[in-house]
Specification:
Strand content: under 5%
Structural class: mainly alpha
Number of helices: 13
């Protein structure tokens, strides 16, 4: 009994530093944010008071909030499947015996290592009217002079393209690692049975990659709802809130306009959305990605 108690105490002591850091920097800020969402924003000599669900009621009548939600859903729908499909395609390609394979892997992964502000500045050069790289290419075909980031119809799609360019290489690494864990004997057996490469990929390789796909999908969903620096550096939510995403609107509300109560309510909504997406993906896809 004493040995068992000593082992339990020893185990909890080993967990204590990590648990303390998790509680201090994750659980406590979350609980404090939830509490703050039911209070008003302190201003000058007027302290914060409990106002119940007023911040959430204001959110329901806030057109910019709903515009940000719609923009974020479009952004997620544009970036998640595209970046995952492109990452899988690149991983399958660089997993083959190619000349310069190491250089290709490095080239695909390089955008991931660049700081986000640097990426934003690179793509600002691409999208600059008349002088940018895209317009310079279009001028060869008699086109150009288009304000890509200043037009509501194209501004959000420009950010989507930039995000896919940056994220696909990061997701490719996970797919590449998973592909290298598949035994070569499976490909040899499929070749002896006369299976085509596409049939082997569809029936054998892709099902074995489903656990990796679930991991990548959850990360892609979380990334699609936490973009703020690219928007801040490139468009600042414009034109006319066409690129205002949920986290950017949260940052603008809480830190630019200093409405901390309403910003806390936006944070709670964002946390609930991300938690619901993550739980839904786990419960829905778990039986479909693992062999039982």
């Amino acid at each position: 009994m004493n040995q068992r108690l000593s082992a339990n105490i020893h185990g909890w002591l080993l967990l204590l530093p990590a648990a303390a850091l998790l509680a201090l920097f994750t659980h406590y800020p979350t609980a404090a944010t939830v509490w703050q969402s039911f209070r008003s924003t302190p201003k000058g000599s007027r302290p914060s008071v409990f106002i119940g669900l007023d911040n959430y009621a204001t959110m329901l009548d806030d057109p910019i909030f709903w515009k940000s939600v719609v923009n974020n859903l479009i952004y997620a729908a544009g970036t998640i499947p595209t970046s995952i499909a492109l990452a899988l395609l690149m991983a399958v390609w660089v997993n083959q015996n190619l000349a310069g394979r190491g250089f290709l892997r490095m080239a695909y992964f390089t955008p991931t290592m660049l700081p986000m502000i640097a990426v934003a500045n690179i793509w600002l050069f691409f999208y600059t009217p008349d002088y940018g790289l895209i317009d310079q290419v279009l001028k060869l075909f008699g086109r150009g002079g288009y304000n890509w980031l200043g037009t509501k119809d194209t501004a959000l799609w420009c950010i989507i393209v930039m995000t896919v360019w940056k994220e696909a290489g990061f997701f490719m690494i996970f797919y590449l690692a998973a592909l290298q864990q598949i035994p070569p004997s499976l490909a040899e057996a499929a070749s002896l049975e006369g299976a085509s490469r596409w049939y082997f990929f569809r029936r054998v390789v892709f099902p074995l990659l489903m656990p990796t796909t679930l991991f990548v999908l959850i990360n892609a969903v979380i990334n699609s709802f936490r973009l703020v620096d690219h928007v801040l550096a490139i468009t600042r939510g414009g034109p006319d809130n066409a690129t205002s995403l949920l986290l950017f609107y949260l940052w603008e509300t809480a830190f630019k306009f200093w409405d901390t109560g309403y910003g806390a309510a936006l944070t709670v909504v964002l946390l609930v959305l991300l938690g619901a997406f993550a739980l839904g993906q786990y419960f829905y896809f778990d039986r479909r990605v693992h062999y039982r």
